[in-house]
Amino acid sequence: MTTDPPPCCAPTRAQGAPDAEGVAGGANPVSVAPTLGPHDAGLVEVPAATFLMGTEVADGFPADGEGPVRPVTLGAYRIAAHAVSVREFACFVAATGHVTSAGRYGWSFVFGGLLPDDFPDTRGVAQAPWWRQVYGADWAHPEGPRSDVAGRLDHPVVHVSWFDAMAYCDWAGVRLPTEAEWERAARGGLEQARYPWGDELTPGGRHRCNIWQGDFPVRNTLDDGYLGTAPVDAFEPNGLGLYNVAGNVWEWCADWFDPGTQQARVMRGGSYLCHASYCNRYRVAARSSSTPESSTGNMGFRVAGAPTSAGNRSDLS
Fold this sequence. Notes:
Blueprint (H helix, E strand, L loop, with lengths): L42 E4 L2 E5 L16 E5 L2 E4 L5 H11 L4 H5 L1 E5 L11 E3 L2 E8 L26 H11 L6 H8 L27 E2 L3 E2 L29 E7 L8 E4 L18 E4 L8 E2 L17
């Protein structure tokens, strides 16, 4: 099973240039009043149920392992209504001094369309040249050293690796959801619908998610109101009260993408760069992956509560 991303999905760190030596990284000057520790975003109760996981749609990606459609039984569990925000992640960094993978490596991948015209030349990914290797890009500087997160504290944190997400979970007393838990909650109580809200992408002409409109990657019409990330609670929630389980940012899950190779971790939900012409992985059953040390400007995560039943966990080591 391949883990190579299609053009608009997140590249792996191995697809970037060699790391620079002596890049300190990790200086994150974000002033946020600390909270009382555990994750306080609000966890939604998901009742025990058997649901149909996966899809076999014609425009899916067979190599991703979306199918076959199969029944999966889960006990009751809790999952966050929205992705972890910049504000929440800043509290974690302030409390622990955590340096992200991007901070340690000294760089992360940034979508070139978000960089100013006078930005210095950067190296791109061969298969997807719109992904640029930007030194100094991290969660607090999403487009590199010239940028910051002022005005984006309620947006999802990005440039976080799977290891960073796990570190946050350890601090906050939560965990990453399993892939099955993520999909069950993302479906919002609908069975085999294409999207978390139904089968139409824009029911009644209303945008329900933050994805690319126009000609990818050269022109975004901004019909949904956003070029990059949107606030974590933008758009209407699904039937279980979850926001942005389609588009906005890819969300890390606990599982290996392919348990046989154990090279990449599952990501779900798509991102603001997904577009039907390249990567329609904003479908609720779609899946993708990246290596656990990788980070990009469209990778984030949401958390889950402690499982109420051991049956919801798989071998995630």
